[in-house]
Amino acid sequence: ILVTIIEQFIVCNIYAPNDYKEKITFFKQLHDILCSFKEKYSQFSLIIGGDFNIHLSHLDSHDYKTFKKSKDWYECQNLLEKFNLSDVWRNSNPEDRFFTFSNSSSASRIDLFLVDNNLYERFLIDSRIGQNKFKSDHYYITLSIKEKSNSPSFIMWRLNDSILNRISVTTDVM
C-alpha cells in the first residue's frame, strides 16, 4: 500500500494479496489506513488504483457463473461504501466484459481505479484498459481526470463602439 497526497487528492496504489485470508486482512488494514488519512485530510478526495485481486462483479470474470460474494468481496465492498467510491471503468462500461489479467486458464478484471463519487461533479473521469501486457500477465490500465469547464464553448464578443469616441483610444489605434 502506497499513499500519496497530490494537490487535493489522497492517491493510493495497492497490490492486494492472492490468498483469500490475507486479502481479508489486507482490506481491513487498507480501511484503517484510509480512515487515518481522511481524518487528517477530510476535504481531500480519494483515488485508489492497483491490483485488487478480486472481482467486483460477475462481469469481471471469464467464468461468471462461478462468481460468489465471499468475505473478501464484502470487505472490499465495505471500502467502496465507507469512502463513497466507485469503479471508474465499470461506470463507463456497465455491461461490458473486458479483462486486465489473463493466463492460459483464466481471465478477469482485477486491476481497478476507484474514485470518490463526488469527483464526478467537478471532473470528467475515464479509465481505459491497455492493449499490451509488457512482459506481464496483466494489461495496463489508465486513469484520466479532466476538470469540467464552466465556461461556455462559444463566447460572443462585441466591441463597445462608444469607446472609439474617446480621443485617447482613437489616437492609439491610428
Describe this structure in words.
This protein has five helices and nine strands. The strands form three sheets. A five-stranded mixed β-sheet has the order 1-2-3-7-4. A two-stranded antiparallel ribbon has the order 5-6. Strands 8-9 form a two-stranded antiparallel sheet. The radius of gyration is 23 Å and the shape is elongated. α1 (20-40) runs parallel beside α2. The chain has 174 residues and is of the alpha+beta class.
Blueprint of the fold:
Blueprint (H helix, E strand, L loop, with lengths): L1 E5 L2 E7 L4 H21 L4 E7 L19 H12 L2 E3 H5 L8 E2 L4 E2 L2 E6 L2 H4 E7 L11 E7 L19 H7 L1
Parallel strand pairs: 2-3
Antiparallel strand pairs: 1-2, 3-7, 4-7, 5-6, 8-9
Helix pairs in contact: 1-2
Annotation keywords:
174 residues, alpha+beta, five-stranded mixed β-sheet, two-stranded antiparallel sheet, 5 helices, elongated, disordered C terminus
Short description:
This protein has 174 residues and is of the alpha+beta class. It contains five helices and nine strands.
Q: How many runs of DSSP E, i.e. beta strands?
A: 9
> Can you tell me the overall shape?
elongated
Low-pLDDT ranges: 169-174
Question: Order of SSEs, N→C?
Answer: EEHEHEHEEEHEEH
Structural class: alpha+beta
Strand content: 25-35%
- Widest sheet: strand ordering: 1-2-3-7-4
Distance between the termini: 66 Å
Mean pLDDT: 87
